[in-house]
Each structure stands twice: as C-alpha cells, then as structure tokens.
Amino acid sequence: MPERWVNPHSWGQQPGQPPPDQRPSRPGEWEPPPPPSGPPPNPLWRRKGLWVVAGIVGVLLLLAGLLPKSDQAATRTAATGTTVEPTSSAPPPSTTAPPPPTTATPTSMTAVKAAVPNLVGMTAGQARAALSRRGLRWTIGYKATGRVAPGTVLSQSRKAGQGVPAGTVVGLVVAKAPPPPPPTTSAPKNCDPAYPDVCLHDGIGDYDCAGGSGNGPNYVDGPIRVLPPDPFDLDRDGDGTGCDSS
Known about the structure:
3-stranded mixed sheet, alpha/beta, Trypsin Inhibitor V, Chain A
C-alpha cells in the first residue's frame, strides 16, 4: 500500500478522515465494515437513455414534417388512438386509363378518277361489265332501230376517255328491234274470179287478147288460165286457156 492513497474520482471517504456520523472506535468495540473498495455504479446509462428518447422524438417530428397532411392525420390518429375523418372532399383518384389518342386519317382532297371506256358498239352486257370494273354506274334507255342488232349500245352520255369520280352514272342508249309495220288495208281490186292468174277488172269494159282482132278497150297478154263462165270470151276453144294463140 502506498503511504498516501489518492481518490481520483473524489468519492468515498478521504484518507485520514473518519466516516461521517461515526465516532472513532476504541479498542475492544465493534467496528462497522469498511465501505466497498470498488467504484460506485455508473449513472451514465441514465443519460444515454435520455439521449435515445430525445433522438426518437426528433425523428418522429422530422417524419411528421415530411409526410403529407393526410399521412400526418393518420400518424396523429395512430398516435392518439382516435379516428379523424378527412376534411377534404376531393374525389378519389381514378384508376381508369385515359383513352389512347386517336389519329385522324388524312383524307385526300382529290377524288380518284376513272376513265370512261368507249361503249358504243358493245352489247348492253359488255358495257355494264366494263363500267362495273371501273367503279362506275349506268342507266339504260332504248331506241328502236333496224340499223344495228338489238341490244347494241348506240350512244353514251359520257365521252370516252373522260376522267370522272368513282360512282359516276353513265347513260347508255341501246338499240331495240323496231315494231312490225302495221298491216296495210288496200281497197278491193274488183278482179273477176274467172281469171285467177291475172286481175281483170269488172265494170271497165271488155277485155281482148293482145295482138288479136278484138277492139278492146282493154287487152291482156296470154296465155292465161280461164275458168267458166269466161265473161270476156277469152277461151274460145274451151280448153281452159285463153289468149294462147294469136
């Protein structure tokens, strides 16, 4: 032991001093045990606990400043255990995706044109097929004529080779057979039935064989077939043939 003990922490009993409230002992009396020689418990853990609590409070305050108002309200609600109704009337965020942008299809300012074919001389069916292939329409009118076969295209409303928009109507004039001629009603010939091969008119005078000796006024060339009663006496020999000899 050193001659003088130095207490570096200034705690406990100083050397050479009697303990407080303790009288010097006399020989033969009981003495209390000396104080423990180890250092007293360190109160530093109490100060560390205070720093930890202060750090937690600071972190909570910092988070409360960074959170939005709704989260702050939820934090305060969780901390206090009470329910706070939101005061904002903003509608809930929509989960429906916006419709995709529509791209306008550019329309051509110039319509597509088709060339009108030459249809004159075609049949009506051929003309319709030629117009249909070019996206054109048609109307058909008819004209009676005997110059061309019925069903032949006589004319068209659009000039051949002309450029027209699709769907344009082309008028066609198609030939049709002319109607039959009306029956002619001729006046009765007033022919004598005794002479079927020629028409010898009754009531205009006598008939004689041409080149004969008769004086007419009417004459007929023979030979001719003669039936009875032979009013003009042209078959004098009665063989059924008149004017058979000069």
